[in-house]
Structures are given as C-alpha cells and as structure tokens.
Design goal:
Number of domains: 1
CATH superfamily: Alpha/Beta hydrolase fold, catalytic domain
Distance between the termini: 81 Å
Strand content: 15-25%
Structural class: alpha/beta
CATH topology: Rossmann fold
CATH class: Alpha Beta
Number of helices: 8
CATH architecture: 3-Layer(aba) Sandwich
Low-confidence stretches: 7-28
Number of strands: 11
Order of helices and strands: HEHEEEHEHEHEEHEEHEH
Radius of gyration: 21 Å
Largest sheet: 8 strands, mixed
C-alpha cells in the first residue's frame, strides 16, 4: 500500500507541475494581445428558424462536407450584387447578421447573405482560427456557385472576430479570379486570443487569431471603422490593420465595441461604400 501511495503522490505531483506549466504558459501570453475571450457560439434557439425566415429570407446550408448554416435574401429584380456579413463571437449569430444586413441595405435590394461559422447557430464543428478561415472560404465559394453574382459583385463586411473571416473570404475570391467589390472591417483585431468556456478553457493555451497575417496585397479597397472607446479590441488595432491594408481608417469617439453596429455615422459610412 505504501508503494501505491507513493505512486499516487508522484502522479499528483506530475499533474500539478504539468498544470502549473500550462497555466504559466497561459499567463505568459495574457497581456500580449486582447483576450482571452470565451467562445459563445450555440445552436439555434427554439423558434429562431421561423423568425429568421420571415420577409423573404431562406435558411439553408452550404452542403457537404461542411454543411454550414446559411441565411440569404435574394436580390431585387435587375440587381446582381450581394452583400455578405461575417459577425462576431456572439450568440444569435444569424439573427444579428440579418439585422445588420437589412440596416446596411436600407431598401436598396441587394442580395444579402450570412453563413454561420463552425460552432455557431447549428453549423457543425468546433470554433478555431482555422475553422473560421475555412468556413469563410466555403461561404463565398458556395455563394458564387449557387447564386452566381460574378466578379466584382460581392461586398464583404466583417465585425470583430468576423473581420478575420471577411479577410479570408476576400483572399479566396481573389485567388479564384472573382475579386470582391469592397471590404469593410468593423472593430477588427490585429491579433487576439479566444478560448473555450469552463475549466478546460482556463487551462489550455487559447487560440490565437491573427488578422495581420491575412492582410496582403491584391485585396479590394478596404475601409476600417472602429469605436475609439472600444473596451475589447483597441482602436489602435484597427489603425494598424488599415495601414497594413493601405486602406481608410475612421474612428468614432465615445463608441464602444458592439455599439459600432448601431452607430448612425458608422452605418452611413458603410452604406456610402455600397453606392451606387
């Protein structure tokens, strides 16, 4: 019994030291970039499908192998352009996307689309930087194949975590020879950390999201809009990304993070880029 007791004690010590090493590594990363934030994606709430599909919207999926949930509203007769929104790390992904898309379209009749990334609103998979990028590439390629908007007829808007998705989508369209018409990044990050909820999320090394690595030549004209009172992702991240992209930066005094999606001046700026 003494032998087993010693073995158990040794195992506990190894576990403690290993856990301490993990936590030390995690603490070493904290403070370098914003975060770690917690993933908050969840399945569609009861009754959400009926609400989402009111007013001419269609809920579907991208098909195998990813089967991501899609929410689309077709363009008005004679209109060929599509506006795609990539949302942030929040519950009710598609509901928020629909509200933002309708606000930006403002009755213009553009085709509107959002595709929930893995782990959000019933899209299968686990959230990660790699899954976000792959999901964004799948989303715009699905849109191009299914609705055939053609080159230069897709406008991309990303918010918060979705700015990485918007950049990945823009790169995919450029690679396919069907470049996007425009790119807008709302409250973006340069780099940030996100982790799982619960004890495991506290122990493991968080996922590192890196927009700077996606900002490259050959992308459409970019505009970066950021609330100057953003407590989550600092406006300096937006400025840094705008410089890397060679794009326009606009800051809004007194505006926080989520507030940016409802700020009249910011919405007007995005709408102006959708003209004519």
């Amino acid at each position: 019994m003494k032998r087993w007791g010693k073995l158990l004690l040794a195992a506990l010590l190894v576990g403690a030291l290993g856990g301490g090493a993990v936590m030390f590594g995690l603490r070493g990363r904290r403070g370098e970039v914003p975060g770690p934030f917690l993933y908050v994606g969840e399945p569609l709430a009861a009754g959400a499908e009926a609400r989402l599909t009111q007013g001419g919207w269609t809920l579907g999926d991208t098909g195998a192998p990813s089967s991501q949930r899609t929410l689309t509203r077709p363009p008005a007769p004679g209109q060929t352009r599509w506006l795609v929104f990539f949302g942030g790390n929040g519950a009710g992904y598609l509901a928020e996307a629909r509200a933002v898309l309708e606000a930006l379209d403002a009755g213009r009749g553009l085709g509107l689309a959002a595709v929930a990334p893995p782990g959000f609103d019933g899209s299968p998979g686990t959230p990660s930087p790699e899954a976000l990028r792959a999901g964004a590439e799948t989303a715009v390629r699905w849109l191009s194949a299914t609705h055939q908007p053609g080159a230069g007829n897709i406008d991309l808007v990303g918010f918060s975590m979705g700015t990485g998705a918007a950049l990945a989508a823009a790169l995919a369209l450029a690679k396919d020879g069907t470049p996007a018409r425009s790119l807008v990044l709302l409250a973006p990050y340069a780099r940030m950390d996100v982790t799982s909820p619960g004890l495991w999320g506290r122990l493991r090394v968080p996922d590192r999201y890196d927009n700077l690595s996606l900002a490259s030549a050959g992308l459409p004209p970019a505009r970066v809009l950021h609330g100057l009172a953003d407590p989550a992702l600092p406006a300096s991240d937006g400025e840094q990304l705008a410089r890397r992209l060679g794009g326009l930066f606009k800051g809004y005094p007194g505006v926080g993070h989520q507030d940016l999606l409802q700020h009249p001046a910011a919405l007007d700026e995005v709408r102006a880029g959708l003209l004519p």
